[in-house]
Amino acid sequence: MISTSIINFLRNQGRPLVKFFSSLGEFSLFVAQSVYNSLTPPFYGRNLLRQIIDMGFYSLPVVGLTTIFAGMVIALQSYSGFMRYGAEGAVAEVVLISVTRELAPVLSALMVAGRIGAAMAAEIGTMRVTEQIDALTTLSTNPFKYLVAPRVWAGLIVMPLLVMLGDIIGIFGGYVVGVYKLGFNPANYVNSTLQNLQTIDITTGLAKAFVFGFIISIMGCYNGYKSKGGAQGVGAATTNAVVSASILILIFNYIITELFFSK
Amino acid sequence: MNEAKIEIKNLHKAFGRKIVLDGIDLNINKGESLVVIGGSGTGKSVLIKCIQGLLVPDEGSILVDGEEVVGIDEKEKERLHSKMGMLFQGGALFDSLSVWENVAFDLLENRGMNKKDAKSEAVRVLRSVGLAPDVADLSPSELSGGMQKRVGLARAIASRPEIIFFDEPTTGLDPIMADVINDLIIESVKGLGASALTITHDMASARKIADRIAMLYKGKIIWQGTVKEMDKTDNPYVCQFIKGSAQGPIKVEV
Question: In total, how many domains does chain A have?
Fold first, then answer.
């Protein structure tokens, strides 16, 4: 009797564990296949162009709005906070560092994950449940090369560009609040920004953008590719794509920051 | 001597504990149209997917033109697929592309045909399945079910495959449209001299397009023969299926 209850106990514990490792393995295989197929011909240039336009051009308003308000609020907050120590002069520097290192990459990536990661999962998921992915295969076309590779490349190319733009817009937002609301001298504000500008602030932000772009595309494609069971499955895939990408973005944000700045 | 285009030997496939294919032995000869009949959920689609290499069987062997399909790599799979065309049950047309781009997909993407030639070829194939040239520029979502089936058929035959698969080609169509599709299937298969494997549970369609019929039940081929033989057989499973009767040895599993 006892032995059967122990077996049942182990079985109940073991099932989710086995499931976890099998999906982890499945995911790793997916990533490996995606990377391999992104690097080997044939390349589908038209698909890449479409993805770049969808992911880049149409994300411009979202990224612009997010970063300009982020820059503005940082200027306002740091001013009121630093006033306690009489350090109001550091506002421009704080805006510069927080926007380029953290806010522009992380907020843009989260917004793009919500916009594009979801769209990728929905599109590829619908193609899966309507057998369009099988149809690609039967037409001698590798779905990884046709669907996944262009999205991965688009993520890697577009995210750094978006973040670079976000840097500029965010700093501009800080400038607007600093000069028109907090009464800084425009020339002094610009000067203090330029003097404190360091290459590492920009490069770490761009390195993050690069990694985030990969995460967004891979999570969108993976969840879409594995979706099953009709409309409900596609819905679940869309949610999973956004949630998993967002969490991974925040985790990798910490890891990359630690790699660059822990010394 | 060996005229078989596809030879399936002792094919097994299970999903978890559910055994779907339990030792299938089946041959499809060159230029022959074989129809596999069987109830819903008896593994007909799984059989096709195994032959195409979309699913990997647990056991057994599949030879296409005498070459093993089970366990081949991506490169060989692409070569295999260039011999095959497939009409999917739901059409599976690419909704991001126009009708003609769907039909000419393989020509454009893999055979490097230029746009102008590919389009005129697509229009020619569309005409052969009874669609007017002005359909070519529409999007698949603008078409009726019957027209989508025709476009799906046009895409399946556009690259002149040696083997064509039809997955429930008449499901969801009215009887007249179903018969039109049947005629088109016969025409295009004979026109290309291709071998065809159709899975269906529509007996009218099976009778019309089959050179030979095989019945799949509980993961095994339990009967095969010509349409004439089918009408004379006393196999209780086949008789029940043809009559479409709820009474008989086949029990519907709920």
Answer: 1
